[in-house]
Specification:
Length: 182
């Protein structure tokens, strides 16, 4: 007898992503049977997900977050604390001006942590850990950070681990060792 895999609660954001992928997000569906309105199929999304699907959706959002420069890097948000903590300031601080030898590079781990905590509510705050790898890729000018956390889910949390690899010259971030099966 095969043990059943746990079924996880569906995040609300999936409904929007699913409608977009299906190409029906902008269509008005007004189906009627015998004069009565029928709820279209897109409104009857399955209510549970498997672990791989949850991780896949998280990875899409992490990639967007890690490769977006926040508003605070372009405008002075001093005194605008609500804007600084809002979705208007989505992304990471601009790090393209840093080099591998500057003190500021050590602050990148804190920048990564802050962005993840502020803009990714699925990650459990207490479990998030970002640590710079000791080695530095001199040839490609890349700094790597190990990131681990637990994705808050029902009925149980899911561990997540990946490497954020930052190209110091361009400020671009690549995520490797992603928790998504091939």
């Amino acid at each position: 007898m095969q043990a059943s895999r746990p079924s996880f609660q569906l995040p609300l954001m999936y409904a929007f992503r699913d409608a977009f992928e299906a190409g029906d997000a902008g269509k008005r569906l007004d189906e009627r049977v015998g004069g009565e309105r029928v709820i279209p199929g897109r409104g009857t999304l399955k209510r549970s997900f498997d672990e791989a699907a949850l991780k896949r959706n998280l990875v899409l959002d992490l990639l967007a977050l890690m490769n977006t420069i926040d508003l605070d890097s372009a405008l002075d948000l001093t005194g605008l604390d609500f804007v600084r903590r809002s979705i208007l300031n989505f992304g990471l601080r601009d790090i393209a001006h840093l080099t591998s030898e500057e003190r500021g590079v050590d602050e990148i781990a804190e920048t990564l942590s802050q962005a993840l905590l502020l803009h990714e509510p699925r990650l459990d705050r207490a479990s998030l850990h970002v640590e710079r790898q000791a080695s530095f890729d001199e040839v490609n000018q890349r700094i790597r950070f190990n990131v681990s956390a637990e994705m808050s889910c029902k009925p149980l949390d899911i561990p997540i681990e990946f490497v954020a690899e930052i190209d110091v010259g361009s400020g671009k971030v690549q995520l490797t060792r992603l928790p998504v099966p091939a």
